[in-house]
Write the structure tokens for this entry.
Amino acid sequence: MALNFEIPKLVRELKKRKPKKVLVQLAEGIKQNASEISRVFENLGIDAIFSGESEWGGCSIAIQEAEVLKCDLLVHFGHAKFINVKFPVIYVEVKDELDLNPLLKKSLSHLKDYKTLGLSYSIQHRHDLKKIIDFYEENGKKIILSKKIGFAAYEGHVVGCEYHGLKAIEKSVDCFVIIGNRFHSLGATIMVEKSVILLDVYNDEIMNMSGVREKILKQRAISIQKLKDATNVGIIVEIKPGQKFGNPKYLVDKFKEQGKNPIVITMSEITPEKIMNFYHIDAFVELACPRIAIDDFAKYTKPILTFKEALVALGIKSWEDFLKTGAV
Ligand code: SF4
């Protein structure tokens, strides 16, 4: 990885805003750069505190921490803006400067049956977008970028809980190409029916994700059945500002109508250890990141579902509609 934190741009912004004390959030993969980044603030005479909490996405914007610590600015490294917040925030998207050419060339044999490619990228590769489009066009492909819808900050940008931009172009493309990692492509493959080809820039691999879709949807159907059979239900809400996927009160009422005993549980971050002590709960619905239920399925001993899946278990949404509108 050759990470570019665009320090001169950050310094210009800091000089303009003149904060006295900042809370710095670093995405998990760049926490190792904390000491190097600390010097930027030190040189400007700004007090910087680094958040040690997890920062999995732009949703985990640490406003509460910043307020408690009386910081006057939050600097969030590694993600694009996700939601509007009232607290002042600088987003440093971080460029991953890699030579993508060998991987792009390698991808052509996997894409030989497809003419029109629906293209999406994770934020670290946005600066390479023109080069990627030029490459595919020179090789006879047509590129359509996924739409900027919902939490996507740019055209073509993909985040793990937002695939409506891909669904919006699905009818016009032959397959999807995701530049990034398995996390984004796995979400894509359960949201769209066309093939998803991952250009895994970190493992230097091309993967067709088609086989994964059926396996995950089968797991989700099993969890939905378990929630239908459950008596005691835990509805977990997280306190992260961007993780509000569903209305807990609505679910409580609906579960009660069906004779179940729901309770609402709050957590700063969902972990198997934390939910283990609620041993009387038969199934959980988490309204935080939908990917916890989907990707971490095997880590939990009890079924854990997303809001949309809970709607299917309650009979409010049909399985067919769930597949059509997308599982995430
Ligand atoms: S909610 Fe989940 S998928 Fe969405 S940005 Fe946050 S961590 Fe990523």
Summary: The CA atoms of residues 61 and 241 lie 7 Å apart. The chain has a mean pLDDT of 96.
